Amino acid sequence: MRPESMTRRQGGFGLVAAMFLIIVVALVIAAMSRLSSTQHGTNSLAIQQARAYQAARSGLDWGITQAVNAGSCAAGTPTLAGGNLSEFAVVVACNSSGYINEQGVAITIFRFTATAQNGVPGGRPDYAYRQLTAVVER
Questions:
Q1: Is 51 helix (H, G, I), strand (E, B) or coil?
Q2: Selection from 105, 80, 102 nearest residue 90 by Cα
Q3: FRET label pair with 53: which of 18, 83, 132, 138, CA 20 to 30 Å apart?
């Protein structure tokens, strides 16, 4: 009778080992799935931040062009319609100050701040915000 009971115990051990293996594989799959999802979200946010930077830079370029052509501060909201940055709202602020240098030439200094964002904070999972400044002498 002793050998029969030994055989039955060995058969039950295989079931425990199989269950352990199934649980370990399921945990590894769940961890890899979560890692993949996190990585995708991180890449998406990095792309949105790069696009916000380019939108803010476009706003600075617009403001500088307006100031150089008109000779005065140009603040406003340039439109980025027709491109890949159309979802960004860009606001350009400008301050100017003038002085006369040693040679008696009047110099004007323009300080621009361009802010680009898409949506409102907490409203979208891929919200991006970027603010750039530039100083131009004319």
A1: helix
A2: 80
A3: 138
Cβ–Cβ < 8 Å for 133, 113: yes
Q: What is the pLDDT of residue 101?
A: 82
The burial class, CB within 10 Å (0-12 / 13-18 / 19+), for 112 is buried
Torsion angle, alpha carbons of 93, 87, 124, 40, to 10? -120
131 contact partners, CB below 8 Å, separation of at least 6: 56, 113, 114, 115, 116
For 131, the token pair is 């603010």
**DSSP H helices in 73-133:** none
For residue 115, give every residue at least 6 positions away whose Cβ sits within 8 Å of its Cβ, in sequence order, or none.
Answer: 56, 59, 90, 91, 92, 93, 129, 130, 131
Look up residue 103 and give its amino acid. Q
